[in-house]
Amino acid sequence: MSERQPEALLLDGVSKAYGKTWVVDRVSLTIPGGSFFSLLGPSGSGKTTLLMMIAGFVTPDGGSVRLGGRDLTPVPAEKRNFGMVFQGYALFPNMTVGENVAFSLRVRGLGRAERDARARAALDTVHLGGFEDRFPKQLSGGQQQRVALARALVFEPAVLLLDEPLSALDKKLREGLQAELREVQRRIGKTFVCVTHDQDEALSMSDRIAIVRGGRIAQEGEPDDLFENPASHFVADFLGESNFLAGDLTPAAEPGLLRWHAGATGLVQAGQPSQAGPALMALRPSKIAIASGEPCGMPNRLPGIVTGSSYRGTAIHCRVDTPAGPMSVSLPSWRAPFNPEPDQRVWLSWAPDAAVIVTDDRA
Ligand SMILES: Nc1ncnc2c1ncn2[C@@H]1O[C@H](COP(=O)(O)OP(=O)(O)OP(=O)(O)O)[C@@H](O)[C@H]1O
Ligand SMILES: [Mg+2]
Q: Of 115, 121, 313, 329, which has the highest C-beta tally within 10 A?
């Protein structure tokens, strides 16, 4: 348990170039102390490089990293007191679990009794009390990953940095450990900065997420806010699935609404970024209703023809060709009021506040 509120981690214009390429480009972020913060982005977007600069293993070419008021930029990695959990977790195979966890304490010159006590406490934290005398090969992948976590927590780091900590595990195990990692973080109250390219993982574990694209932060915020209010095509597309309708916006007679036209005409909530002119609308497949007859009273409706559907357990995913282009619709499968058949004529409809206007940053 920490005695006081952990300090925020501040990145101010942090940059890194390899050759002529800026792989991290003027990243500024505030990572609140005691939060679970995820860096989410596609492969090669610069997540690991950013994490390595926070850790001190990579020296920035510009900008600074601060913890509270203290500038960490000149502080070497071993003096930052940050814990690291890497992808692949690499436990020492010839050491027991207890020795693996206590290793960093031995390096720091702590005595035997204290090492053992702290290793035991760290293993208890990850629910592996009693596993001290086993060897890594006698553990499951998930248990090994928890040993790696205990090894990083044992010296009570100010901040824990995790790079794809669960990517080596299968889906079921990964989901179990996501919940556990989150629970450990809440219990000890430390700042966790976690790199992942798995959007479900980021959404389920994080207090805040920064979406990384091409070395920059595309958007940063709380998971539900990012999901509901993506600012750009990239974020709407990367974080979950979206339909996109390109069209024109014009003022509507109704207050707070704009009229859109994209092969059909409808109404959308007027928000911050939306103004009259060409615009791109993002619409989640789960926010669209599908019916065989034309819905009355819905300002947004499109006729269409079902081109295919697939059963995904909790949902049925359906592809529909419309005058505004192909659309994806997702309906709950349990007691589905409607069973789409290929070539069937249908109507899609949605509420004005279901769609968001996004920046068109398509490459
Ligand atoms: N030491 C290096 N020398 C040259 N280029 C590098 C070096 N390290 C990383 N890069 C390049 O920088 C870019 C960002 O790499 P980085 O490892 O940070 O991406 P990432 O977002 O972690 O990707 P992934 O999800 O695949 O792990 C990539 O194009 C990579 O090839
Ligand atoms: Mg990486």
A: 329
